[in-house]
Amino acid sequence: MELKNKSLFKQECFIGGKWVKSLNNDTIQVDNPATLKSIGNVPKCGKAETKNAIEAANDAFLNWKNKTAKERSIILKQWQDLIIKNVDDLAHIMTVEQGKPLAESKGEILMGASYIEFYAEEVKRVYGDIIPDPLPDRRIVVIKQPVGVVGAITPWNFPSTMITRKCAPALGVGCPVVIKPASQTPFSALALAVLAEEAGFPPGVFNVLTGSASEIGKELTENPIVKKISFTGSTEVGKILLKQSASTVKKVSMELGGHAPFIVFEDADIDEAVSGAIMSKFRNSGQTCICANRLFVHEKVYEEFLEKFVKKVAEIKVGNGLEESTNSGPLIDQYSLEKVKDHVQDAVKTGAKIAIGGDIHKLGGNFYQPTVLSNVTNKAKITYEETFGPVAPIYKFSSDTEVINLANDTPYGLASYFYARDIGKIWKVAEALEYGIVSVNTGLPTKAEIPFGGVKESGLGREGSRYGLDDYLEIKYISMAGI
Ligand code: ADP
Question: Residue 10: is its pLDDT beyond 90?
Fold first, then answer.
């Protein structure tokens, strides 16, 4: 790795303020998804190391929670400053292990830092309440306190932001964290730990451990010391973690899968809708949980949208994310590539037409062509399952009611998008869509200031914004009598 600050590349875990190997020295190899070559190894930790990390976090809890919000805020701010100072190296590490183009990696690092900035400010405003009591000599007092040790399990598609989005509010209100990053992208997480140590978090407050997902996940969910699990990943794994967390009645935040509809109404600005769709669909090679997965276009503007959209897709330059000209990287692994291939082949078998792409890319490896499918039918798997790849299936619709029903016909409810100009229609559709996020006339709704999260099987809880603090706080009622 060509880094200015070589100390950012760590092949050890950070537990209780120390850099450690796994107890039996086992490791996991991490590969670059663009070249398929090994980047390095990280410890393969399991139950015992997870228990150690949880205990270290618990030992640090009292001291950390008793600091003032301002003291914690200062350390968060230092962490943010260090991340921004090291943005080029952090982006390089991310592109090498995750595959996204450097510009996207830089964008993610800065977005991740913006969560820390936001919560460094917001944690100073964790207010309580004093409620009038029906009895004259009493007052009802409500205070908010940190839940305790937090276990955070994060995915590979946003290796940095998914960590800061959970940790900034948790740390800010006084919770120590034990983080388990995805095994595909552990180096971004470990680099954040290097900077967290430098920023001055006391030992045990910030822990990162890599290794067996199921073993670490089981200990995090079943250990009674952990009071809260925050997970971002698939609905399938989310359900396992929910079941396991039931044994100790833990609080949970779940950011799970999505199957976002992207609707283009007949009065939409078509050029705007096309660039929004490109942004929403092809960012991170289609590997985001809020990617547009089903594009519904009104019959009156269908041909125009399709033609303009395909023209833009043809301009996408696929390649190694380290190359300046690349604006779409590889898929994360062969498993993902197989799923994309299967979804496209199945859609074609059930009546869809390939408007562009439709096959593996000539670069080979984990690369797939940016693909647009027209005339997709409701028999295709892609209509019901999340693809997590650079494939845009397009459907034609003719009425508002029809498209709202189609959009809501899924167990998922994370993000939705639509383009329209009529204000009455905008309100009606925004209220009718069963989604945690409704994005009107933009393909990129995410930022630190918004409550990100889903309904239905897309999850529980919200991240970002002032609402994101609630996920790491307990409400305590103090009954004051004898006044
Ligand atoms: P994706 O489909 O995006 O890879 P996953 O849900 O499989 O999403 O992975 C998200 C995170 O969950 C990763 O850190 C992964 O290692 C972890 N994970 C996978 N399986 C389990 C499990 N059984 N228990 C706990 N964590 C898991």
Answer: yes
Q: Name the burial class of residue 70, with classes exposed (0-12), middle (13-18) and buried (19+) by CB atoms within 10 angstroms of its CB.
A: exposed
Q: Which two tokens stand for residue 259?
A: 């199957």
**Average of per-residue pLDDT across 420-446:** 98
Cα–Cα distance measured from residue 103 to residue 87, given in angstroms and rounded to the nearest whole number:
11
CA distances from 222 to 118, 214, 249, 278, 326 (A): 31, 12, 9, 42, 43
- Is 255 catalytic? The answer is yes
- pLDDT beyond 90 at 39: yes
HEC string for 262-286: EEECCCCCHHHHHHHHHHHHHHHHH
Predicted structure pTM score: 0.97
Q: What is the DSSP string of 7-68?
A: GG---SEEETTEEE--TT--EEEEE-TTT--EEEEEE-B-HHHHHHHHHHHHHHHHHHHTS-
DSSP bridge pairs for 449: none
450-461 mean pLDDT: 98
Retrieve residue 398's tokens. 């003719």
**d(Cα 420, Cα 438) in Å, to the nearest integer?**
13
Nearest to 167 by CA among 468, 466, 467: 468
DSSP string, 207-260: EE--B-HHHHHHHHHH-TTEEEEEEES-HHHHHHHHHHHHTTT-EEEEE----E
Per annotation, catalytic residue among 49, 117, 122, 255:
255
pLDDT tens, 42-80?
999 999 999 999 999 999 999 999 999 999 999 999 999
175 in active site: no
Is 308's pLDDT higher than 90?
Answer: yes
Residue with tokens 């199945």: 346
| Spacing, Cα 183 to ligand 1 middle (Å) | 9
- Which mutation among 28, 229, 237, 414 tests ligand 1's pocket best, with the greatest number of atoms within 8 A of CB? 237
- Residue written as token pair 């647009």: 372
Contact 437, 416 (CB under 8 A): yes
